[in-house]
Amino acid sequence: MNEPLSVDLNCDLGESFGAYRMGNDEQLLPFVTSANIACGFHAGDPGVMRKTVQLCLQHNVAIGAHPGLPDLVGFGRRNMAVSAEEVYDMVVYQIGALQAFVQAEGSTLQHVKPHGALYNMAATDTKLAEAIAEAVYKVNPEALLYGLAGSELIQAAKRLQLGAANEVFADRTYQQDGTLTSRRQPDALITDPDKAASQVLRMVREGKVLSQQGVEVGIQTDTVCIHGDGPHALAFARHIHETLQREGIALARPNAQRP
């Protein structure tokens, strides 16, 4: 008898800082099973980090660090010329900061998911991927590394015997090589909740996604990302959550994928 399907729903949270407010963190938490909390480089600040950790624990949502490039103005979504050594240092620094808040609240860090440009750069750059995986392994070898499904991040984690979760996106389109369509292109985002839900269901059930080139791409789905910074993020998250439940797909934290 086949085991029932299950998938993790994750969302980027804690992206307010100073006087700037972004997202609907408290309203989104009932609809996700894992949260990626900004660590102060692309967004977030110490007070926001602490409060977001506390909110996650109140809602029984697993906590992950969301390290990004040091680019508040660009929200960490602009590529930067950084070396593998620099990436290692900034990821260790950010994981350490968020992990300290998690430990101070008596809990543990479940995972690490790079943010934005850092995530996409490491998806195809072996050296950057290895720097991130090594940073996670040395700070918290029990943590999972969330990375684009089948990417260099996943392969780097496997080489270090680090747990990995293949991530797919509800609201992004794909290229035929399995990478995400660049946000600079007009067709990068899926704004129709029904279309997004259909894409998620197919990725979970069939392990396939239709690329922008019309080619079906095989894809492993351990966790699904729902972005929390869009104007309709809350309605979007609720729709994905309710669709999965209606279709009999359980929502649960991901199992560690270790070699």
UniProtKB/TrEMBL annotation:
NCBIfam families: PRK05406.1-2, PRK05406.1-3, PRK05406.1-5. PANTHER family: 5-OXOPROLINASE SUBUNIT A (PTHR30292:SF0), UNCHARACTERIZED PROTEIN YBGL-RELATED (PTHR30292). Its EC number is 3.5.2.9. Gene3D superfamilies: Glycoside hydrolase/deacetylase. Forms a complex composed of PxpA, PxpB and PxpC. This is 5-oxoprolinase subunit A. The keyword Hydrolase applies. It catalyses: 5-oxo-L-proline + ATP + 2 H2O = L-glutamate + ADP + phosphate + H(+). The gene is ycsF. It comes from the Bacteria. InterPro entries: Glyco_hydro/deAcase_b/a-brl, LamB/YcsF/PxpA-like. Pfam families: LamB_YcsF. Keywords: ATP-binding, Hydrolase, Nucleotide-binding. Catalyzes the cleavage of 5-oxoproline to form L-glutamate coupled to the hydrolysis of ATP to ADP and inorganic phosphate. Belongs to the LamB/PxpA family. The lineage of its organism: Bacteria, Pseudomonadati, Bacteroidota, Cytophagia, Cytophagales.
